[in-house]
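Weekly sync, protein design subgroup
Attendees: M.S., D.O., the rotation student, P.L. (late)

Item 1: inverse folding check
M.S. brought a backbone from last month's batch and wanted to see whether the design step gives back something sensible before we order anything. D.O. pointed out we never logged the input encoding, so this time it goes straight into the notes. Structure tokens as presented (312 positions):
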């Protein structure tokens, strides 16, 4: 691989509709993907991420979901495939699956094993990414978790990973603006063309103004148009316009990311149902459906954000 692809702009992490028996609803999924790809300002789509309930998908279902994605949006925008695994060997295999499917790159999640002290052993992190890069040889997006999770990487570790030629971007979900800025500064100091993609959806405008190159966001499955407009306004220095768009996003940010955090993507599915974009909001266990009261709160937030909600 001579030069890594430079990612930028708004890249939604798609939700994954299921049928009542919890199989992948391919027809609904294809409509969802097409709507995202046709949204002005969308520069890529992330498949098999948190928003797609990747932890509940079998290896074969991940292959199938990715194949549907690359087939449906072929030529419209790049597809980034999530690599969610606790082992390096399986991560390599998932990355090779992505390469065979025609993905433009992979989003590599940190193994949960790292929470047991990998922050003190950055060579573990280096080895994991180096093996994926060497054996799959396609652009890599490093997924940065919140420092409090125990599996977030230190700025120095991110800077070291940026030396791997295949590393093209960092998806920063540090969820703490000081950590985000330090990570951004560490990446910029390397001098390598590694993009900083914000996943700090609860404070997206702040990260755009600090200099993020774009965003990867599950909430983008609902609000890709507004996120793209926000990014464009920040890029232009139109602060008044950015504030207006940010104010529209605010009620949805509050309802989607309210405690418990684990329900964020369940709520986004309910929003897509209320907007008439998918037929049902089925989620796989151990996730559970939202309550009627919460569904009504989501409806009110959509209306407050200026969306046209489907009548009951």
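Designed sequence read out in the meeting:
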């Amino acid at each position: 691989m001579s030069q890594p692809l430079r990612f930028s702009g708004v890249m939604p992490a798609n939700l994954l509709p299921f049928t009542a028996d919890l199989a992948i609803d391919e027809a609904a999924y294809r409509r969802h993907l097409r709507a995202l790809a046709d949204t002005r300002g969308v520069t890529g789509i992330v498949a098999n991420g948190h928003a797609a309930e990747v932890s509940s998908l079998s290896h074969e279902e991940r292959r199938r979901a990715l194949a549907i994605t690359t087939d449906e949006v072929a030529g419209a925008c790049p597809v980034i495939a999530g690599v969610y695994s606790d082992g390096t060997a399986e991560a390599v295999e998932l990355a090779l699956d992505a390469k065979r499917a025609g993905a433009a790159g992979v989003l590599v999640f940190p193994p949960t094993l790292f929470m047991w002290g990998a922050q003190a052993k950055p060579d573990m992190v280096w080895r994991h990414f180096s093996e994926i890069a060497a054996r799959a040889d396609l652009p890599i997006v490093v997924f940065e978790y919140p420092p409090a999770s125990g599996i977030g990487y230190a700025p120095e570790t991110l800077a070291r990973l940026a030396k791997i030629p295949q590393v093209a971007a960092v998806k920063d979900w540090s969820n703490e603006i000081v950590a985000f800025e330090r990570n951004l500064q560490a990446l910029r100091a390397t001098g390598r063309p590694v993009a900083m993609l914000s996943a700090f959806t609860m404070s997206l405008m702040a990260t755009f103004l600090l200099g993020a190159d774009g965003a990867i966001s599950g909430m983008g499955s609902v609000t890709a148009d507004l996120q793209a407009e926000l990014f464009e306004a920040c890029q232009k220095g139109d602060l008044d316009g950015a504030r207006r768009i940010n104010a529209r996003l605010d009620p949805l940010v509050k309802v989607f990311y309210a405690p418990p955090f684990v329900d964020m993507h369940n709520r986004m599915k309910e929003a897509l149902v209320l907007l008439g974009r998918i037929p049902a909001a089925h989620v796989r266990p151990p996730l559970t459906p939202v309550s009627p009261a919460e569904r009504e709160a989501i409806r009110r937030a959509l209306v407050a954000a200026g969306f046209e909600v489907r009548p009951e």
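Discussion: The mean pLDDT is 96. The radius of gyration is 18 Å.
Action: P.L. to compare against the previous round before Friday.
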